[in-house]
């Protein structure tokens, strides 16, 4: 009995699905879709060109800028003059040459070689003001006593 009931229910459901309405006609034709896609591609190309033009070195690239007001900012970290929000560091500032044409894109600038702590004679550039052994290549604090290192003129002789 159950088998007959399940079989009749299945037939009834499939019979009702056969009478489902046709899919409605599309609102846009294929040529309209193509026109919208072409316009979208043109807008994307225009935005890419504007972004490329904006990335070219210009004196208006800010070192720090407001994320809410991108045209507001300055050369030092601080607060936005309009909303008081903390200014955000702009990495693009470091990617642009100081003067247009000063550096070519993709050019690798060599890192400066740090000065040696001692000269050829073994004399330290900076030595401890307390006379502790050792020294350094730059002004710092003594590794032994913590006092500031003093410039040693004998390094240059």
UniProtKB/TrEMBL annotation:
Keyword Signal part of the UniProt annotation: yes
Superkingdom of the organism of origin: Bacteria
Signal sequence bounds: 1-17
GO molecular function: metal ion binding
Residue stretches making up the Heavy metal binding domain: 63-90
Keyword Signal listed: yes
Pfam families per the UniProt record, alphabetical: HMBD (PF19335)
Keywords: Signal
InterPro entries: HMBD
Protein name (record): Heavy metal binding domain-containing protein
């Amino acid at each position: 009995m159950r088998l007959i009931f399940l079989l009749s229910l299945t037939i009834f459901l499939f019979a009702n699905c056969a009478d489902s309405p046709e899919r409605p006609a599309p609102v846009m034709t294929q040529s309209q879709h193509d026109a919208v896609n072409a316009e979208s591609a043109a807008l994307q190309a225009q935005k890419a060109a504007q972004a490329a033009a904006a990335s070219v070195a210009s004196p208006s690239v800010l070192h720090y800028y407001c994320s809410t007001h991108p045209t507001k900012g300055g050369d030092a970290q601080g607060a936005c003059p309009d909303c008081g929000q903390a200014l955000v560091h702009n990495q693009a500032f470091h990617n642009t040459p100081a003067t247009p044409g000063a550096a070519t894109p993709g050019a690798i600038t060599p890192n400066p070689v740090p000065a040696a702590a001692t000269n050829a004679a073994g004399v330290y550039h900076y030595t401890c003001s307390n006379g502790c052994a050792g020294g350094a290549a730059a002004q710092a604090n003594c590794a032994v006593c913590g006092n500031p290192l003093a410039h040693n003129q004998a390094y240059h002789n």
